[in-house]
């Protein structure tokens, strides 16, 4: 792909900077710090976020705060 100066697009700015999938734990604080550096350098970040990413952490945090999480017959 060719990038033309003046259109605010570079190969680096169009790259995928993060891929988050449910099978991979996300340290959101570290990722935020890492992506902030990318944002400062490129002017944007591109994140591929798969459905269900981070759900285990979200549920654990909600349960730790006392929230009741409804589950189906299979425990989902």
Mind explaining what this structure looks like?
With 76 residues, this protein is mainly alpha-helical. 38% of the residues lie in helices and 8% in strands. The chain has three helices and two strands; from the N terminus they run H-E-H-E-H. It has helices spanning 11-14, 28-42, 55-64, and strands at 18-20, 47-49. The chain has a two-stranded parallel ribbon with strand order 1-2. Helix 2 (28-42) links the parallel strand 1 (18-20) and strand 2 (47-49). The longest helix is centred in the middle third of the chain and has 15 residues, at 28-42. It is elongated, with a radius of gyration of 18 Å. The N and C termini lie far apart (43 Å). The relative contact order is 0.18. The model has no long low-confidence stretch (mean pLDDT 87).
Which properties best describe this structure?
elongated, 76 residues, two-stranded parallel ribbon
Mean pLDDT: 87
Number of separate strands = 2
Major β-sheet annotation: 2 strands, parallel
**What is the succession of H and E elements?**
HEHEH
Q: What is the rounded Rg?
A: 18 Å
What fraction strand? Answer: 5-15%
Give me the number of helical elements. Answer: 3
Structural class designation: mainly alpha
Shape: elongated
Low-confidence stretches: none
Distance between the termini: 43 Å
Query: Helical proportion?
Result: 25-40%
How would you write the strand order of the largest sheet?
1-2
């Amino acid at each position: 792909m060719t990038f033309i100066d003046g259109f605010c697009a570079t190969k680096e700015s169009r790259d995928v900077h993060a891929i988050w999938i449910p099978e991979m734990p996300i340290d959101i604080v570290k990722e935020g710090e890492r992506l902030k550096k990318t944002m400062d350098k490129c002017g944007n970040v591109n994140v591929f976020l798969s459905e269900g990413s981070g759900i285990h952490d979200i549920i654990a945090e909600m349960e730790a705060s006392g929230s009741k999480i409804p589950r189906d017959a299979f425990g989902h």
